[in-house]
Amino acid sequence: MACVWRLNLTLIASIFIVCALEKISGQISYPIPEEMEEGSFVGNIAQDLGVNARQLATRKCRLSSDDGGRYMKVSLDNGVLSIRERIDRERLCGQTDMCTMPFEIILENPLEVLHGELVILDVNDNSPTFRENSIRLQISEAIPSGVRFRLERAADPDIGINTVVDYAISSSEYFSLKSRRTEAGTVIAELLLEKSLDRELQSSFQLVLTAMDGGTPQRSGTAQIFINVMDINDNPPVFENDVYRISIRENTPRGTLVLKVKANDLDEGLNAQLTYSFSGLASQIMHGVFSLIPETGEVIIEGPLDFEETNSYSLDIEAVDHGSPAITGHSNVQIKVIDVNDNAPEIKVTSLTNQIPENAPPGTFITLINVIDRDSGENGQVRCEIQKNIPFMLQASSTHYKMVTQERLDRETVSEYKIFVSASDLGSPSLSTNTIIHIVVTDVNDNAPRFSELSYNVYVAENNAPGASIFTVSASDPDLGQNSSVSYSILDDHFQNLPVSTYLSVNARNGTLYALRTFDYEEFKTFQIHVEARDAGVPSMSSSATVHVIILDQNDNAPVIISHSAESGSAAAEIIPQSAGQGYFVTKITATDADSGQNARLFYQMVKATDPNLFMIGQTSGEIRTTRKILEADLTRQTLLILVKDNGLPELSSTVTVHIAILQNSTETLAESINSVNTSENVSDLNLYLLVIFSCTTIVFLLIIILLIGIKCKRDRNNTQDYTSPSYCYRRGDMQDTCNRRSAMEETLRYPGTEQLVRMPGLPQYSVRLSPESAKSDFLFLKPCGLSSSQAQS
Q: Do residue 216 and residue 329 come from a single domain?
């Protein structure tokens, strides 16, 4: 209960001190306990400053502090200052009684800098700890009762009431514990011998030492005390002073003697010979800073001193005699470090605006410069300045400097400034720091993007892959910054009743044009779009360019065979008389190709024939003629396989089969000749064959003579006509009855890349096969614009 009252009184006293400081210094001060949760409320900046909370955002309210920005944050919505990160007082301030964290509140428009600080109040978040878990003592049995033995003190990083305030020991009839507070404020525990020891009765003791702090809740730490009872050496060493005090400058060189401690022992011989050393706790703290010569007790500076890190040291020194058992004496050395001018000023540039438009008026705010010197007194007072003959100036405000424009800027004269900022303190000798601030003068958006050309011609081969890039347009803007950042887009337009955006797209960042669909030269050959380039300035400026897209033909259509007897509507077998001589015209193969140029140039070739030496075909005309006179020994049924290929690269082709019947100079009937051509089966039954011949001879003989004369006349007329004319066909009206007796044949077309079969009635003598070949070509030509789509695809 007493500890709780002491804690409350401590907090009340701390708050009273903070409030008093606030009134004296005129700055905002917030006392808070350490280890507060993230987001915990600290204070309301808006209320304390008397500023409307809605103005915090517009005035760009912010914290400017080395640690304040790390551990605190301010809400621009309501001005509440809250904890950003847990604060550990011991890590920040160590054993310092008053732990403060200064911060600054900066408001702009107009500029206003207010000072504040956090007063970090200690909470009991650390337990007392001993350097070792066990303490071993050797006590002579000759030592009378009432002698005290100083024990190892416990360490607690907390301060005030939260540090070690008392010790306790387990119950023993021989020993008790006495605590006392030194001039330095530390509590020392001493073991009191209540009753003389008798080694023969009990040679050792084991006690539990407990160190307790005064915090709420109270924390404690323990250590085991092992006591061995020995004989002789009954006087401990005693120092000349319980506390030594000395002051040294922080720039004192290494190896300098700080002071010499001395202890006396009333014993004689080895029991009076002493060895000096730092206590266990002091040895850890002072490691690398001070050293102690064991034989003489001289304290030497071993490492560098830094007033800004630690301004005082407290050393616990032990003197141990050489008796058996050894007895230890203790003393304390208080060392104060004196500041010297060893820190140059630090320049911190906040709210830097490194870009300023050339039309900025004089007095425009550029940046805020904060100059800090870690030294104290005159050594920490700083002045700051910039070079002359530049259109900028510094306006002093407390420890801050505001840089503003002094006159109008001209980007065309100077586009960039390197401003040298120099800060020097008032120490002796004076220390200084320099830094460079880069200021870029920006332009206004007064130039529109310009294309490299006003019109582009883009050539794209048909059957292109959708999504592939076909061209890149480029526009440049002489402005700077976002004013020169150009984005591309396609202006709204239509082609074939569709938006051009369905044909092409453009990369807004680099101007690359992409095809959104596969183009077909046979569908359309050219179209145009308008590409706009717009900068990112405010207001933005733009220009446009015309892109003419020209589709190039590829060999992607195979030749298509056209029936040469369109008038009759059927493709009966070709019939020639046996009396036909060399060069006799049999028929003409007609084909067409949907491609253009060399891709549509067709060549005809006979790849297979019953008698290769009997017929020939014109390479470009497609006319089939006899190469010699027909002999009686020649077969009356001839089959030709004709290949039609284009001139593309690679070439595409189609095939057609032509059946030819040779009419012998005998009494053969027309029906028999036709049937013998249309079927590939040989009639083995000669009797049936002769029966049909003799029964039809008297009826058909006259019809055959008339038919032959009609066919001959028809072919003679066709020889004088254009072979490509669609009227080229046979007139077989006289043979209508005979042809009706024949079963109609069907033509089968197989298209490349598919498994679909198309039956085409009326073409009994043609079997067309399309060869699947690629559609590349060495020579690509544009079809004349005069052809319609239907004519190009026919």
A: yes
Contact of 501 with 489, CB cutoff 8 Å: no
Final residue in a domain of this structure, among 442, 471, 505:
442
Q: For 459-488, give the DSSP string.
A: EEESSPPTT-EEEE--EE--S-GGGG-EEE
* 199 in a structural domain: yes
Taking the CA of residue 589 as centre, how many other CA atoms within 13 Å lie in the half-sphere pointing to its CB? 33
Q: How confident is the model at residue 307 (pLDDT cuts 50, 70, 90)?
A: confident
Least Cα distance to 771 among 535, 612, 605 occurs for: 605
Q: Regarding predicted confidence, which is higher, 172 or 739? A: 172
Domain co-membership, 310 together with 177: yes
pLDDT band at 665 (very low <50, low <70, confident <90, very high): low
Residue 660, Cβ density class (10 Å: 0-12 exposed, 13-18 middle, ≥19 buried): buried
For residue 765, what are the CA distances in angstroms to 18, 577, 656, 708? Answer: 115, 18, 9, 20
Q: How far apart are CA 442 and CA 477, in angstroms?
A: 14
Q: Per-residue b/e over 53-92, b at no fewer than 16 CB within 10 Å?
A: beebeebebbbbbeebeebbbbbbeebbbbbbeebebbeb
- Residue that wins the pLDDT comparison between 16 and 510: 510
- Residue 126 within a domain: no
Mean pLDDT of the chain: 78
Beta-carbon contacts of 717 under 8 Å, excluding residues fewer than 6 positions away, are none
Q: Which residues are paired to 532 by β-bridges? A: 489, 544
pLDDT recorded at residue 66: 62
Total count of domains within the chain: 5
Considering the entire predicted model, what is its pTM? 0.40
In a shared domain, residues 616 and 680:
yes
pLDDT of residue 216: 87
Give residue 394's domain range: 346-442
Query: Sign of torsion, CA 477 479 480 482?
Result: negative
Nearest alpha carbon to residue 281 among 159, 139, 186 = 186
Q: Which of 213, 153, 17, 23 is nearest to 97 (CA)?
A: 17
Q: Dihedral sign for Cα 751, 756, 761, 764, please.
A: positive
Answer for the pair 553, 782: CB distance below 8 angstroms, yes or no: yes
Least confident of 311-325, 536-550, 696-710: 696-710
Residue 526 maps to which CATH number? 2.60.40.60
